[in-house]
Amino acid sequence: MGIATEDRALPGRRTAAPGRAGGPHRAPSSRRTLLRRAGLPYLLLLPAVLLELLVHLVPMLIGILASFKELTQFYIRNWSAAPWRGLENYRVSVDLNAPVGKDLLNSFFVTCVLSVLAVGMCWLIGTAAAIFMQEGFRGRGLLRAIFLTPYALPVYAAVITWAFMFQRDHGMVNHVIVDQLGLTDERPFWLLGDNSFIALAVVAVWKTWPFAFLIVMAALQNIPKELYEAAAIDGAGIRQQIRRITMPALYPINRVLVLVLFLWTFNDFNTPYILFGDSAPAPANLISIHIYQSSFVTWNFGTGSAMSVLLLLFLLVVTAGYLLATLRGRKTADV
Amino acid sequence: MHRMRAAAAALALGTLAATAACGGGSAGGGQASNEAPKTLTYWASNQGPDIEADKEILTPELKKFEQQTGIKVELEVVPWADLLNRILAATTSGQGPDVLNIGNTWSTSLQATGALLPWDAATFDKIGGRDRFVDSALATAGAEGQDPAAVPLYSMAYALYYHKKAFADAGIEKPPATWDELVAAGKKLSTGGKWGLGVEGSNLSNNIHQVFVLAKQHGADFFDASGKPTFTSDGAVAAVKQYIDLMATDKIVAPGNAEYAQNQSLQDFAKGNTAMILWQTAATTLTSHGMKPDEWGVAPVPVPAGTPGTGQNVNSMVAGINMAVFKNTDNLDGALQFVKFMTGDEEQKTLNKTYGSIPPVKTAQQDEAFNGPDLAVLRDTLATSAAPLPRVPEESQFETAVGTAVKELFADAAQGREITTDLVKERLTKAQQQMPTK
């Protein structure tokens, strides 16, 4: 992140330098060249900015616009003619006494719990694996490659395999738990009822932890070996080395990693959709599925858009709060 | 100089991108025209065992059409999971096919979007008239009292498929004709790890098809005459409870069926693990799972008492595929010619034979091929005791809300929770609250 901001500052600094040397009282022509020079980077950025607007902002604005409309199947053909509903869609979404609002709140909680849990597990497993893989040993390359496979597999293929494994009667999970280990007599359901949350969490962690592993492994390469050697001479054990050297050095990476993992898990649509289909059981009804169901399955794109906007606002607040909090923490840590 | 040129190029690129993006997609209000009389785009639904099979079946027929009329048809077979989303996207953008297949239960919902060409008398005349079609099939093509938004293409109905050998082994002489008989037979058959009946508990549409018929048998409807949802009427509650009780109290359905949504119940049936299923035109799928046609029997779906008929003795929904023309097609005449071709006697016989469905066209239905023991049951059901699903614009919301309620109740039953009338009513109340208020 730091690198990116420095890069952007560079051209500005370069153009500013000759201007300062010339002094402010020079002829206006030089001011024009100054303007032109200062303007060039923006001009060069213009196509990118325009495309960015088209690709990202315009659909977002349309989504926000749609959230104020009654966009049902009666109007999707010519949606500019859809009647305005003002804040009605939002009222329905947050009305906690009605089923729509209650369900949204429920899936919001489920999503929050799942995100915290999955991010924690992903980070823990990823970091632990990366630290173990630092030591050189036979077969390390192979193991690293195996660890990365969940991340490299196409999501659909991976998750549908899990869905088969979680099947009650013929799935592998129950075969191991009930038939081979004999842990329970009853075959539990994994894709229905309360257990569906566990199934979802397992797949989410399995799918994402290799990313944490990959990033932390790359970051570990940047910590100078001398630090560990010096610490070892001073009598620090492995645990102390990890706590005093590895963790502080990983801080800037972790800061971004945790945020990215959180946003990914929070917004994940593929995993629950492939596992549970159009209607997920309540304990695993993630917010993205809930919004999909509210808009595409029931053909009410206005309410779906309103829920999406609320979600966007929430994620913006979380992200901003997180960055502010960690930034302050970092400044004091750096000094 | 260099810099200026670079800047100009950058600007040009930007404007180009902007105009290109605006140029695509005309507004949704386009009108039908005949600007492209030599080509048509056709979205077919997946009727055969897989997409490739459909392409192989349809391509020679489309070649025939091209030879007759000189119109080239671009075929795309769209999988069921995508079809509705694709149609919605095409409706929003106005960039759709000329002719398309729709699940007949979507007809009224899609009719409300105004994207499909209405079939008034003049339009019907161009394909041979409204009278060519069976009434019950035509009733699925749109809201009551309005010009249909589509015409029926393939018709299907529910029937009871049973294992002849399992029945013989258990000493059951004839297939059950009432629900009491079905439960009694199911109890005899549910022994030694085998089960009497298979259901598809997590398949929302299938849940709806079943409870719709049961509700009819209890004298109830899920919508009243003015189109308001009435999910919590005593009849509807009793119907849902009766369906769930097949697993919960009668115990003739394996608990694992609660999570079935990908036609696993058909596989179980083909393997001999369950002795009965209630399904629509299952023959093709059962054969593809390795069953021989003489291993199973087909009987009408049970009724409370007596024989299948109208009113409370309805025993199937009118299932099937309708064919629609997009209103903003740029080859209206060609599209109508194509519909005429596909609903003509010859194509109706060929395609329905291949797909194992029943022609919704009266003259084609008379063919010998639809008189075999399997298809005769389906044909008679369609003719005498099938009713269309509610013809309201909110049909798809209804399928989601009530279908999910049934799915959750099956999950409860499978996990050993007691299914009471109050619990069923509570779930249906919640489903009704999820429906859009008008």
TrEMBL record, chain A:
Primary site of residence: membrane
Any one of the GO CC terms: plasma membrane
Membrane topology recorded in Swiss-Prot or TrEMBL: Multi-pass membrane protein
Domain of life per record: Bacteria
CDD domains: TM_PBP2
GO biological process: transmembrane transport
Gene3D superfamilies: MetI-like (1.10.3720.10)
Subcellular locations according to the entry: Cell membrane
Keywords, ordered alphabetically: Cell membrane, Membrane, Transmembrane, Transmembrane helix, Transport
Annotated TM spans: 40-68, 108-133, 145-165, 197-220, 249-266, 305-325
Family designation: Belongs to the binding-protein-dependent transport system permease family.
Protein name: ABC transporter permease subunit
Source organism: Nonomuraea phyllanthi
Lineage: Bacteria, Bacillati, Actinomycetota, Actinomycetes, Streptosporangiales
From TrEMBL, chain B:
Top-level taxon of origin: Bacteria
InterPro entries: Bact_solute-bd_prot1, SBP
SUPFAM superfamilies the UniProt entry points to: Periplasmic binding protein-like II
Name of the protein this chain belongs to: Extracellular solute-binding protein
Origin species: Nonomuraea phyllanthi
